[in-house]
Amino acid sequence: MRIRTKLLLVLLALALPPLMGVCFYAVYEGRLLGHELATRAADASRRAAEQELALMVDLIGEDLNDNRRMMELSLALLGQETRTALTSPLPAGTASAAGATFDAIDGIPPSLATLPDYPVPATAAAMSLSLTGGSGTRVPAEQAARLALLPPTMHVLRRKLAENMLWAYVALPDGLMASYPGHGRMPDDYDPRTRPWYENAVSRKKEVWSILVDASTGRLTATVSGPIYDAGGKLLGVAAIDAPFEAMLPESDLSRRWGKGVKALLVHAAPGDAGQLEVIGSQSFLDAAQSWKTTPSPEPFSSTDSGDAVRLARAIASKMPEQLSMQVEGQAYFAVFKPFPDTPAGLLVLVPREAVLRQADSAEAAILERTRGMIAVVVGVSLLAVAGAVLLAGFGARAVTRPVMALCEAAGKLAQGDLACRAPVTSRDELADLAKTFNEMAPKLAERLRLKQDMLLAMEVQQNLLPATPPKLAGLSIAGSTRFCDETGGDYFDFLKMTDDGAGGLDVIVGDATGHGIAAALFMATGRALLRGGRAAKADPAALLTLANGLLCEDTMDSGRFLTLFALRLVHGGLAPGGHLEWARAGHDPALVYDPATDAFEELFGPGLPLGVLPDYIYEGQAHPGLRPGQVLALGTDGIWEARNPAGEMYGKDRFREVLRANAAASAEEILAAGHKNVADFQAGAPRDDDITLVIVKADPA
Q1: For a Cys-Cys bond, which of 29, 194, 541, 603 suits 567, CB 3.0-4.6 Å?
Q2: Are 201 and 226 in contact (CB under 8 A)?
Q3: Cα 132 from chain centroid (whole Å)
Q4: What pLDDT shows up at residue 330?
Q5: Which three-class secondary structure state does DSSP give residue 599?
Q6: Distance CA 115, CA 509 (A)
Q7: Nearest to 511, CA basis, from 405, 600, 585, 427
Q8: Where does CATH 3.60.40.10 sit in the chain?
Q9: Higher-confidence position of 166 and 516
Q10: What is the end-to-end Cα distance of the chain in Å, rounded?
Q11: What residue spans of 416-468 are helical by DSSP H?
Q12: How far is CA 562 from CA 164, 557, 630, in A?
């Protein structure tokens, strides 16, 4: 019987006898149901809002941590380059940079382009030099010439850090300071050696963070600085990078979601006072008008409940996130703390409690209002009807609601993770169809969860098959990485260290199995195992491919799958004149060698079918002289040059050659990163159709 018929029979039965009992029953049960639904909806909305806030703070905190680590890595690079510039022999023909300086009075020289959207006139084409004592003090020519070697490094840092970098600068013990971008001389009474970023870095002998007012712009900055020492431990100077302080405070992002009243604070444990916190950065720091000679001081963090501060202090000490409700300045807040991993500080976000509960209160009020309206209608209809048929009405109500409650109970168990729960099927109406659909859904959901877990496990296993770190060979820098288009893929690279030649030999393997996904990953893993197993035969690359091909064909020849491979051996370190290159190709794209000295590219060709095609195929070895200083060798898969942009245009090998040419002076790791970034920029968000693998081997400059 359909539910419409059941409802009609119930209404007919209720219209005949008096319904006073039904009135009381409906009012009582309706009130209970309404309050229960309102309470559950409010609790669910509150938990969802708190979880959303915690996740949002976690993501913002991770972004802040990433920016902080990026600035610290950039500072380390600037310090290393400065040490090299100050201690290495000055290249012949290097001119003094003293003549290229400019000051705030004269402005930017007409020959240099001005950076847009900068708080003061500045240029990326040059750095500016200043020396304690005013504009009339003569800059030492040799020191200026050495510091003139730094702008390329500073330009790279500015490009990488983007809006997170205001200035990068280096100050020497004699008061000479180089700043980038070039922006005019500092105030005459400015002495970098008396600034907190310089003094703290020297006294602590490590990188330090400071919150300061910039002397050039008057803006509040977060400054990371670190000392620079020569090999004998002598202080050469201090390097520093300024970030606009507003970049560290995500209040605008939080306010768009949670409204006004949100506070984002940078806090740390107060020195020497257990359980007390200090605010080392907030919006009030930005709002305060301060001279550049003034160092912003930490502010005490006060809460009505001292236990809240103790909990936060413990979270800072243990570097663990924390969520709690607390009273600050007489107002109730929901607080989320995200620690900074390597320092006893973190991001504390305070959201007014009413903003978190607003959605929950609205849902509760709406449900209660609808419940009151329903009760009023039931009472009115019941009073107009004839009182009677209480038992029949109660039976009808139970007959209708019992399947619904059973289905709700089953849904609650499913929401708690019980995938084996089932809803009882006791009728033949639409509720029974709904229960059957629910019972069919649970196994499918369990299967999808198992499939997702299997895919995550497969991805973890395959990632562990790839080299975690590149090997180290004298005179070479090596880097490699694979980026899959799915969770798993068919691309592969490996470094096989040759332990028998005693001269730094290394096999570099790059392969590409047909297709991508689980099947390609399994095929790649099989090929990898055969190559690593064949290494024990002490064979050259050609013999190694021949051996692996025969074994692979025995297992997979009927599958129609194959594996392209390029096996390169760096014999005796792979550097000229003592070492050389040997390789064998199995249908893979040739390796590419770029010589910056001649601006020439050379491809390492050679015959060879893919592995898994013909079981008796004999591969031929090839040889090439060793790499000369500065030369770059690149091995990649076709996912690079076959990548397409939204218009369907292929990336091609010419663009890849331009990346090698433009970044030939960088390290292997930087060339690798530049290659991946250039491909991603070209694709401009277009779907990736194939895995991308790239290995870079660079001979260190002489």
Answers
A1: 541
A2: yes
A3: 42
A4: 74
A5: coil
A6: 45
A7: 585
A8: 468-699
A9: 166
A10: 90
A11: 430-465
A12: 47, 8, 35
Answer for the pair 492, 509: CB distance below 8 angstroms, yes or no: yes
- Residues shown for the chain: 702
Could you tell me where the DSSP H helices lie in 466-594? 518-534, 541-556
Q: Decide: 473 and 570 in contact? Cβ < 8 Å.
A: yes
CA atoms within 13 A on the CB side of 27: 12
| Residue 633 near residue 600, CB atoms below 8 Å | no
For 375-419, the pLDDT digits (tens) are 777 777 766 765 655 565 555 556 666 666 766 776 677 667 666
Kindly report the pTM of this predicted structure: 0.46
- Token pair, residue 339, equals 């620690």
Backbone φ and ψ for 397, nearest 5 degrees, come out as: -65, -45
Lowest mean pLDDT among 103-117, 201-215, 537-551: 103-117
Integer angstrom CA distances of residue 203 from 77, 131, 194, 350, 516: 21, 22, 12, 35, 55
Q: Strands 322-328 and 128-131: what pairing? A: unpaired
DSSP secondary structure string for all residues of 243-311: EEGGGG--HHHHHHHH-TT-EEEEEEEPTT-TT-EEEEE-HHHHHS---TTPPPPPEEE--SSHHHHHH
* CA pair distance 179, 103, nearest whole angstrom: 12
Highest mean pLDDT among 334-348, 497-511, 564-578 belongs to 564-578
Give how far the C-alpha of residue 544 lies from the chain's centroid of Cα atoms, to the nearest Å. Answer: 39
* Residue 637: band (very low, low, confident or very high) from pLDDT cuts 50, 70, 90: very high
Least confident window among 131-140, 276-285, 287-296, 555-564:
131-140
Concatenating the DSSP letter of every residue in 174-203 gives: TSEEEEESB--PPPTT--GGGSHHHHHHHH
Backbone angles phi, psi at 175, to 5 degrees: 95, -5
What architecture is the 248-355 domain classified under in CATH? 2-Layer Sandwich (3.30)
Helix (H) or strand (E) holding 325: strand 322-328
Q: Does 620 or 332 have the greater pLDDT score?
A: 620
Contact present, 367 and 34 (Cβ < 8 Å): yes
pLDDT digits (tens, 9 = 90+) for 170-203: 999 988 889 999 887 677 788 899 999 999 999 9
94, two tokens: 């290097």
What CATH number has the domain spanning 468-699? 3.60.40.10
Taking Cα atoms as reference points, which of 225, 151, 70 lies closest to residue 673?
A: 70
CA-to-CA distance for 512 and 514, rounded, in angstroms? 7
Question: How many beta carbons lie within 10 A of that of residue 147, not counting itself?
Answer: 25
